[in-house]
Amino acid sequence: MVFFAGVCVGQYIRGNLTQLSIQQVSIANCIFETYYEFLLIAVINALVQSFKRRYQDLNCTVLTVFQETESVEKWPALAQDYRILGETVDMFNEMFGWQIVLIMFHFGLEMVSTLYFNFHVLVEKGKADLVGRLGNFSLCIWILWNFLSIVLSIHDTHKESRKFIGLLYTMQDYFEEGSMEIGALNRLVSYSKNFAPKFNGAGFFSINRAIIFSLLANVCTYVVIMFQIDFNETS
């Protein structure tokens, strides 16, 4: 409902400013492609959240198993679950890697377009009505929210996955050095490190919180460039 409300407001504003019909505005704004992207983002977030919950369950299971006595034979099963989750993340990267690349690219373009439209058309062209400003500001926030939802969900999932390795290291403090349990834990750590999840965009970049500032910096750079080009043309 929020998506459709935002789309309708955006169409209304751009239709009034450009004197185009609803059909023409819909075609120009690629509304159907935007709706497909909205659904794709929802699917990606749902999958990433499921990975996060599975890693959380695995970490809780680790604590439960290590509290039991004579449960060394259960430890390899934990590493196997961790391996399966890591391989599932690799499959996720193969299925949605290129989609994530295009989504990130589209986010950048939409942010640049929205900010330029907000400052240039609504202000400099003398059409700075309240509805127009609120609509474009809402659209900018909506784009940024979708971008942050993907990146932060992936970051939280990766954080939960690292807790598994951290728990294995922590459990070594409860056993005597050189014991059978310490040897088993060292083998589990070495094995599990090979299957740590790595979210990426089709192999071009890793997805983490650093990409947020990278995208925002690029958006600001291109907005400034567009203003400079526009200023040179008018002068």
From TrEMBL:
It comes from Zophobas morio. It is found in: Cell membrane. One of its GO terms (cellular component) is plasma membrane. It comes from the Eukaryota. InterPro entries: 7TM_chemorcpt. Signal peptide: none annotated. The chain crosses the membrane at residues 25-48, 100-122, 134-154, 210-229. It is a multi-pass membrane protein. This is Gustatory receptor. Keywords: Cell membrane, Membrane, Receptor, Transducer, Transmembrane, Transmembrane helix.
